[in-house]
Target: DUF1349 domain-containing protein
Amino acid sequence: MSHTVPWTDGLWTNEPADAATDVDGLRVTARKGSDAWRITSYGFVHSSEHALLTPLEPESAIEVQFRLDFSEQFDQAGIFVRVDDESWIKAGVELSDGEESLGAVVTRGTSDWSLSPVPSWAGRLVTVRGSWSGNALTVRARVDDESWRLVRVAPLDAAGPVMAGPFCCAPTRAGLTVHFTSWRMTPPDAELHPSA
Model:
């Protein structure tokens, strides 16, 4: 059964500079330097992301929608799925080297990162969906009401609780405010490769 998650139901992994709700959703202002990453290539561990999380049940999906309005290197927003400090997935859109890119960071001890440019998505409504079925999280995204794109199929085989919700980070600057317009829990995708 699909349902909207109230913004007040979530708990922050790290408090943002500001978070305010109104009839249009939730506006989150990230702290400068906020990020989530573990070790790979850069050598550092960052766990200062602003993720608003509630329990994600097996055989269910999370959907988060936000307005894409980024201007500085590594501005990012989307969904965050957390098992523990060393096992988590963030997926959404990030401004990387001057271009909006759709991607994911999958972390199991160390992080791995994938990106695909989506410059035509700037200024539009982006929806990111993480569907947990069996031992995997299938991440899809779309802009406005266009078709879903497959972003990533990642291992998610957790014995303990899994938490999920919207997130944003601003690794390089102060003043990033992300307007999240919806947060929903739904049944998982029926299959990995939908028929035409």
Notes: The radius of gyration is 15 Å. The first strand starts at residue 3 and ends at 4. The chain has one domain: 3-186.
